[in-house]
Design goal:
This protein has about 325 residues and is α/β, with parallel strands linked by helices. Helix content is about 40%, strand content about 15%. Helix 4 runs parallel beside helix 5.
Length: about 325
């Protein structure tokens, strides 16, 4: 199949790599594509790149007319604190950019839209027990989560009005080799830890920056998206994509101790310096396993080991 992905960042490129391995042809649509990064992560075979802005509906329509995709994967947009810097810019990009993508898809006869949302849409302030399933209530007190909830609702309205096949993916806290231009705070923290590990001397783990969270490796997210593109029973459904576990600073310490048995690993307490991690309950992967056939291949130790290997091979991206 021909598949168009908005966003050539961490998730978009890892999804492209997985889709290409499955025999699909992928076009990445991005406002400022990093070709070196795309070549390293997505690969060079059956991957093309188009430069364009989500806020430019005619550009999206031209791209879809040229590519004629059967499926559109929507992953582009600002993440985390970037949405509030300043809020109007973030809201406009995330919501209008998504509406333009949905509109261009339905006008172009696209069969299915796979929308990359986030597990941040859940009403975490009022969730006390898990595992958290896809029918748990949504809630937001920050702009990023609010835009993601709005996009999910808008996509549902497009499905009902135009008969689009839609799939929503809610990844947990995604990490992996990337340039984090969109603003992923958790991703930046993991990239910093990777740099420290590839250096010398003690490895410092800041407890409050890690928190307690489901950290999912980008290759698993890419595979979840590819499965959402292919699975016949996925239309109209929402899927959590993660490891199904919550990892704490102690889990990080144990994983790194296996990778670096001769290095000192320090747990640093104290202030988070404005980079606090989340405190989350585990999410359920039952629906993703049943409908998509998804199970995580990269738990924390395996994911971080692969991340280190890729970083050694290619370096880091800014």
């Amino acid at each position: 199949m021909k598949i168009l992905i908005t966003g050539a960042g961490l998730i978009g490129c890892h999804a492209a790599n997985e889709l290409v391995q499955r025999g699909h042809n992928v076009t990445l649509f991005d406002i400022n594509p990093n070709q070196i990064y795309i070549d390293a992560i997505a690969g060079k075979k059956r991957v093309s790149v188009m430069r364009g802005d989500l806020l430019d509906l005619p550009a999206l329509l031209r791209a879809m007319k040229s590519v004629k995709p059967a499926i559109v994967v929507h992953s582009a947009g600002f993440i985390g604190g970037q949405v509030a810097n300043p809020p109007y810019r973030g809201i406009r990009t995330n919501i209008l950019g998504s509406v333009n993508t949905f509109e261009a898809a339905q006008l172009s006869g696209v069969k299915r839209v796979v929308h990359v949302s986030t597990f941040g849409v859940y009403d975490w302030d009022n969730i006390k027990t898990g595992p958290v399933t896809e029918d748990f209530p949504r809630g937001a007190t920050q702009f990023y989560q609010a835009t993601k909830i709005a996009n999910e609702l808008l996509l549902g309205a497009y499905k009902n009005h135009y008969g689009l096949e839609t799939v929503v993916i809610r990844p947990a806290s995604v990490y992996g080799p990337g340039h984090y231009r969109g603003g992923s705070g958790g991703g930046k923290n993991m990239a910093e830890l990777t740099r420290i590990c590839l250096g010398t001397g003690p490895i410092e783990l800041h407890e409050k920056r890690i928190g307690s969270n489901d950290f999912v490796y980008a290759k698993d997210v890419g595979r979840g998206i590819a499965l959402a593109c292919e699975a016949k029973g996925a239309a109209g459904k929402t899927f959590n994509i993660g490891t199904g576990e919550t990892y704490t600073p102690q889990d990080f310490r144990q994983a790194l101790a296996k990778l670096y048995p001769k290095r000192e690993i320090k747990l640093i307490k104290g202030a988070d310096d404005g980079r606090a991690g989340n405190e989350r309950i585990n999410i359920s992967l039952a629906q993703a396993k049943r409908v998509l056939g998804y199970t995580p291949k990269y738990k924390l130790a395996q994911g971080f080991k692969d991340y280190l290997a890729v970083s050694k091979q290619y370096g880091f991206w800014s």
